[in-house]
Specification:
The complex is a heterodimer.
Chain A: H1 3-14, E1 20-22, E2 30-33, H2 38-47, E3 55-65, E4 69-79, E5 84-93, H3 99-102, E6 104-106, H4 115-126, E7 129-131, E8 159-160, E9 163-164, H5 167-178
Parallel strand pairs in A: 2-5, 6-7
Antiparallel strand pairs in A: 1-2, 3-4, 4-5, 8-9
Chain B: E1 8-12, E2 24-30, E3 33-40, H1 48-54, H2 61-65, H3 72-87, H4 93-122, H5 126-146, E4 155-156, E5 159-160, H6 168-191, H7 194-200, H8 208-213, H9 218-223, H10 230-233, H11 259-283, E6 302-310, E7 313-321, E8 329-333, H12 335-341, H13 343-347, H14 352-362, H15 366-370
Antiparallel strand pairs in B: 1-2, 2-3, 4-5, 6-7, 7-8
The chains are: A alpha/beta, B alpha+beta.
Chain lengths: ~180, ~375
Amino acid sequence: MEAQGILERIKRIIGDADLVWVDDQPGDSYLVIPKEKLRRLAIYLKGDPHLAFDTLMCLSGVHNMGEHDEMEVVYHLYSLRHRHQFILKVTLDRPAFFPHFYLRVDSVSGIWPAAAWMEREAYDMFGIHFVGHNDFRRLLLPTDWEGHPLQKDYRESDAYRGIGTTREEIKGVLAEEIG
Amino acid sequence: MPLTTETMVLNMGPHHPSTHGVLRFILRTDGEVIHMCRPDIGYLHRGLEKIAEQLPYAHFMPYTDRLDYLAAMNCNLGYAITVEQAADVEVPPRAEYIRVLVAELNRIISHLISVGTFAMDIGAVTPFTHTIREREWVNDLFEELCGARLTYNYIRFGGVAFDLPEGFLERLSQFLDYFEPRLEQYNRFISKNKIFKERLVGVAVISREQALDYALVGPNLRASGVDWDLRRDEPYSVYGDLEFDVPIGISEFGVVGDCYARYWVRIWEMEQSVGILRQCIAKMPEGPYLTKTKRKLQVEPGEIYVRTEAPRGELGFYLISRGGIRPHRLKIRTGSFSAMSIVEELGSGLMVADLVALIASLDVVAPEVDR
């Protein structure tokens, strides 16, 4: 099915309020949906025999710090049965105060188990919380790491467990050892 | 008095010989049986996605070599195609054929390592020395081509870095003539070995549904009976003009989706790659090997997700550009990552020795998991 046909079916199930279809830029087109509708739509996308999106190819977090500070979660879906793909996006506000209250979205790991690790990675790198994930913790970084490195305003701390991370500090240690 | 047993928590790794790089499994075992298996990854996390955001497009190419060091050409190729599609760069036909040629050659040596270490993990050490011997020959060819033996940095936006040297195709033909009968030799030597089979047949079966749920890709997906190969089904570069079969797991030797099926798919893929290479040699066109591009390539605002078939399955690059010479975001989706995520589910209920077979059969490369 073509992207337009998929879009029509989606509109039929969750209504076309607040849906934004973006196809005015080069490359892939995508659909931005409100985060409240994600879970319902995801179940439908996988279950509907005409859509049958059986694989979640890729789940990525994105941080935009333009005039508006916001994060995106991007779902690249593919149907091996019908050989078509679709891209979904959810946008999350990131206010200056208590951002972790706002960076929350429903987990789809119950629908596509592949999402379990991808969501953990997105949390690790962006600090996005996925509600309803049954083993939610960091994936790549140590559990006591501070901050989420792929945020655009991330600053690495000067030391981790007493080990310096700056170039000057490493140079200093080397100078001390080698003399 | 009845004999009571206790479960024991066991650390496997980070420096376990069967983990192919640095990764750790936390096992809760009862005797030899695993009750819970929890992979702990991240030891080789280098923040490639963050690095990509700080560098001009072309400067990130050498980093893609380090993504999967056993298949650096394929990683180069995936990244190059992504940026070319985003920036509308033309690739001359000769360069396309050279790219497919090096990608398939790299697929062969990557599968050689996979098959060799597979046997070694099971306990047969000698086959590894045989596969390494063949791989050295290919490494010599690659060294002739681009000067490097492991991290090639050979593919450029708009072509390849160097033309094929004098007599390269003849030497490649010599290698293929030598290599093709070797595959049959491996089969007599190890593939059909009774002990080897006993260890693998019916072990850690991944059903078709499970494979799709966990988004397995490449040989692991095909071993579960899913007939899907990007090279055939969504052809990129010149794969559309080449003829080859896509091997999938069959139940002739064991169960569809068991460790043994995953082993055989790789052996058959090497056969197919030899066929593709022979076609590339026959069809290699003359002409330029590189289109000149700007030193600092600019990409129009927009986003694109491109996937290519690397030896460990689909390698996806999700590129978002806001204009300018650097990407706004580059997400790398690798085959080993999804293969690793299924271990937690499959691991419980296996014997410890079978877990080693499972990891080896999934052909996980740790730097590709962690990126």
